[in-house]
Structure formats: structure tokens, C-alpha cells
Amino acid sequence: MTALLEVRSLEVEFDRGVPVLDGVDVEVRAGEILGVIGETGSGKTTLARAVVGLAPVVAGRIAVDGRDRAGLRGRALREVRRAGAVQYMFQDPLRSLDPDLTVLRLVGQPLAVAGVRAAERRPRVLEALDLVGLDHALADRRPGLLSGGQRQRVALARAIVTRPRLLLADEPVSALDASNRNHVLRLLDDLRRELDLAVVLISHDLESLAGVADRLAVLYRGRIVESGPATEVLRRPLHPYTALLAASAPGGGAARRAELAVLRGPAPDRPDRSACAFAHRCPFADAACAPRPTDTTPLPGRTVACHRAADWRAHLPS
Amino acid sequence: MTIAPSGSERPVLEVEGLRVTVGRGRAEAVREVSFTVRPGQAVGLVGESGSGKTLTCRAVLGLPVAGVEADADTLALGGTDLRGLDGRGWQRLRGSRLGAVFQDPGSFLNPSLTVGRQLAEPLRLVGGLSRAEARRRAVELLDSVGLRDPETVYDRYPHELSGGMLQRVLIAIAVSGDPELLVADEATTALDTVVQAEVLDLLARLREERGLGLLLVSHDLAVVADATDRLLVLYAGEVVEDGPTAEVVAAPAHPYTEALLTVAGLGGHARGHLPVIPGRPPAPGTAGPGCRFAPRCAYATEACRLAPIALIPRADGRKVRCLHAK
């Protein structure tokens, strides 16, 4: 089966010569959830924004359903956006939802943009509210009167009301407590099945991705340093940065703390862009890490960009 | 009055029978909350939004919220009675014996002043240091919270620093007056995982080095599990379980603690396993006469709903508010 979203060698620059994305490859199939994890500034939000045409693409290909969108400008871009096949769900529902509009209007907006007549919008909005488990009684409320979890569901209803093929969800659960987080993640899990939706789920938190993502892509300073099936990546990271992320997750206890002591490495130097992106803070970096590593496939379905991928694990406490 | 076990030092914080009411109807949002924090000890307050953990923490810091009234049988910092303290008294306390860090460090700093100046100013005005001494001390503090190249960081503006660096600056400011107690309310919630772990380690180091008491407030049981010695679980304004963190996490006695542990997914990365706690906590003043968790509890029986459930101390040092406690 071919990928619904295919991103190849994507480069994005806001300032000339300072790449925010530096040769990124990802693909997502219909009905699949790709988890993208990375720290603040890693480029994960930029990746999602580039796919919806909101970031300056310098080079590379972004194909949705086989059609390249990276080169689209002006009217052509507006038309593609309006069709609503790709939806972007913003990070902060409190700030991204207009406080003066009712839930009905908010969720109906993307339909209005797509040219659906007012009379047809209402039933589709109510259907979207059903899909995310929101009571129809909330349709006349404004965002200020909703709980954090409800607001996030409104944002989700708004994102799926056009029946998109691809959903880019940017930190949809980072503001929620664990129970509400799991509620929303379950919903995403159900929706991708019911709507055969391809989902890019962006998070800085491994725990949010572990439960629902089929595959993970780990982003560090604009490059994918590791990718593969989520359970395998988490169980046995191939890249030291992925291992650092996993060991830093709270509640890991003494075993993880011992791993952290090894994985944290030296205080970071200034990164060298011609070298491995992680070398400046990697405890295992040596002279071999000066050239930029290429992706290797040590195991089926998994990629890693690390010169020390074969031997760094030997340094972990057993 | 809580009596500390013999041989241990006097608590830095004593809270006994804290009550907080909200709104015109004075609905009870926090009820009979009692705990102590000893020097070098970390106590965690954990619960969902609306559990009363932030109201408890604001009462301890003397930070007024519009329409909120707090009062307690005992509220003492290092033996000093804090009840009846006026606004100015609280402010003096917060700059010296009481430190605090919150979720959004950026909003507590003046964007138009360098972070070094914001750290040095109180050292000069309150601590009476000269300009040069204040700068030297500020650089030392920036260094002590793990900021690399503190001389350079001193001259930076808030927007030039990452979220993790800003939180370290806030911690430096919070400990600059050499406080006895540091209150951290969701202080690591907005940080990246790797930075969160580093900041939690920094807090642990500060309390070891300075004998600082730490009150760590979080909705995330996973955060509190590793970083505290004692844990209070709050539900709808009441303490439902109180005990040594490791023991509570290993074997929760209250069904709500158990539910929080399950949703936090401690250490587990099982795919497709996304447990939730059904329902929502009651709004202040709307709970029934019995156990406030009963409507969401899998173990609840008729007896749970009839009358208030007491917080019962047990032989193992834990306190539990449940008829069916494990």
C-alpha cells in the first residue's frame, strides 16, 4: 500500500542558511498513526506546518495522495487547503478557538470555508460532535465555558468535520491531565479506524505516543535520528537520543536513573551543523561522529542515523 | 498539632485543618487538609484539576485569589504562625523564607530586564548587598542551578532563554533568599521530558544541599512518584490518601490513588492500553454526603454514599479515607 503522506528530503528555512528542517523523510499510510517526538525547537511543529503550506519549504517533496504540494503557491495552494483533505489541529485550544463563537460555529467553520451551505453544516457538525463524544447540548456554548478536555474535543471535531484524509495533531494532549490525555488519545485511535484517517501525532512526551502510535519518528535539531515501529523503538532504542528521552520519562525509578547517569553525557557544546546533530551532547560521540551520519536500516522497518548505533548500548548499566 | 517523631527536626511547614472556600456561596473547595514538611523532605500533592491542590498551595504561599478565603487551625513556617499575616508580611516572607516556582516561568519575569538584574535586584534591596556583591552572588546562584556559562546568562533577556533555562532562573530567584520551604506548583509540567527530569534532579539536589523542604504539586503521579518522600492524594478538596511515596505507589490503598496510578501508566509502554477515570470530580459544594469519589469508584457500595468517610490513620503510617481500603 502506498503512503497517503510522503515527505522526502524536506528542507525548511525561516532565515537563510539556518535550516529548521534539514532533510526530513517521513511517510504515513491511511489508518496509521505516526508519532513525531522531539524537544522544543526540534522542528516538529514546523514539519506539520510545512505539510499544510504554512512554512517556507526550500527543497524536498510533500506529497498527499501522490500529489506534490511543496511547490504550490497562491491560488493553487488556497484551493487545496479549502478542499479540507488535510487538517491541522493547533496546539492550544483555548487560544486557537475564537472565544466569541459557539461550538456550532467553530466546528462548522472549516465546512463554510469548503463552501458547504449553512443548512447542510448543522447536521455535519452534530455528527462530528458525536464522533468525538460531545453532547449536542454543548453546541451553543462558547469555549470559555468548556473544560480543557472538552475544548480539545471541540478542536478535534473541527479538524475532522471535513472528513479529511490526513490529520496533523500538534501536541493535542500536552495541556491535559493523564485521564483526559488518555480520553483524547483513545478518540484519535478510534477515529483513524472509523475514518481510515492518516494521523501525524506530534508530542514532546513519549508517554502520549506510546499508547497509540504505530510508528515513531524521533526528531532532533531538524533531522530524523531514528524511526520504526513504536513498541520496538521504545523497548530498544537504536539512537542515544531516543534512549535519553525514554530514560527521562518520569516515574521510571532507580533503573532508569542509572541509565540516565550514562545517557546525559557532557554539558552540550555548540552544535556543529556539518557533524551528527546530536554529537554536541552525546556521551558516546568520538572522532567518527564529525561527518553527518546517513540513515541505516539495522533492523527491518527501522532506521537510525548514528555512527555509534552498533556499540553504544554496551555502555549502559546491565 | 502534628507531633514529629522523636529525633527528627522541627517541621519547616505545619498545616493543620486547612479550609478554603470559593465564591459568594462560600462553597468548600478544600476541607481539613493537614500535613507537615520537614527540612530536606519532599512532600507531593497530587490530584486532577479541581482537586484543591493549587488552592492548598496558594494558601501556603499566602497568595490571594479573588473570591477565595482560606483559614486553618495551624499554618506555621519554621514555628512562625502565618495566620493573620497581612499582604506586606506575606510578601516579605515570600522573598526570604518562602520560595515558589510555577508552571509558566516566562510570565514571572520582566521581559525588558536582563535575568541577572531581576535576580540581583532583590539581593541588593532586601539582602543589602552592594551592586558588585549582588552581581557576584547572582552569578553564583545561576551557576548553582546548573546554568552553563552563568556570566553570559546574567546579561540575557528572558526571550533569549529556553523554557528549561527560564525555569532554572526562576528557581535561582526562589532560592536566592535562602528559603526554608520551596513550593513548586506544576513547575515542570510545560517542560520537555529531558529538561523536566533535569529540573526535578536539580530540586532534589537543592534540598539535599540546603536542607530545603519541598512541596511539589502536580497532576502527574509519575512526576511526584520519583521526586518525593511523602505523598498526599487530593480528591475534590479532601486528602484521600497520605503516606510514604514509595509505599503508596507500590500498593495504593485508596481506589482513587489506584486509578491515578493506572492512568499515569508508570513505566508501562503497553500499546493500546489507555485507561481513563470515568466521570468528573464534583464542583465545590455539590458533593453528596458520603465519599466524594463514590460516583466514579468501582468498589463503591451503599454505605459509601450515606455519611462522610473519615481519614483513618493506619498502623503502617498511612492515612486513608475509604471504607474499602486495601
Features:
heterodimer, A: 318 residues, alpha/beta, 8-stranded mixed beta sheet, 4-stranded antiparallel beta sheet, 11 helices, 34% helix, globular, B: 326 residues, 5-stranded antiparallel beta sheet, 13 strands, disordered N terminus
Could you explain how this protein is built, in words?
The complex is a heterodimer of chains A (318) and B (326). Chain A has helices at residues 44-51, 74-83, 93-96, 103-113, 118-131, 148-160, 178-194, 206-210, 230-235, 240-248, 253-263, and strands at residues 5-15, 18-28, 33-37, 57-64, 67-68, 86-89, 166-170, 198-203, 215-220, 223-229, 296-299, 302-304. The radius of gyration of chain A is 20 Å and the shape is globular. Helix content of chain A is 34%, strand content 23%. Chain B starts with 12 loop residues before the first strand and ends in a 6-residue tail after the last strand. In chain B, helix 3 (115-125) crosses helix 4 (131-144) and helix 4 packs across helix 6. Chain B has 11 helices and 13 strands.
CA radius of gyration of chain A is: 20 Å
Tell me about the largest β-sheet of chain B. 8 strands, mixed
Strand content of chain B: 15-25%
Which class best fits the helix and strand makeup of chain B?
A: alpha/beta
Shape of chain A: globular
Q: From the alpha-carbon coordinates, what is the Rg of chain B to the nearest angstrom?
A: 20 Å
Strand content of chain A: 15-25%
The helix tally of chain A amounts to: 11
Strand order of the largest sheet of chain B: 7-8-9-3-10-11-13-12
Which chains share the greatest interface? Answer: A-B, 41 and 39 residues
Identify the quaternary structure here: heterodimer
**What sequence of helices (H) and strands (E) makes up the elements of chain B?**
EEEHEEEHEHHHHEHEHEEHHHEE
- Report helical residue fraction of chain A: 25-40%
Number of strands of chain A: 12
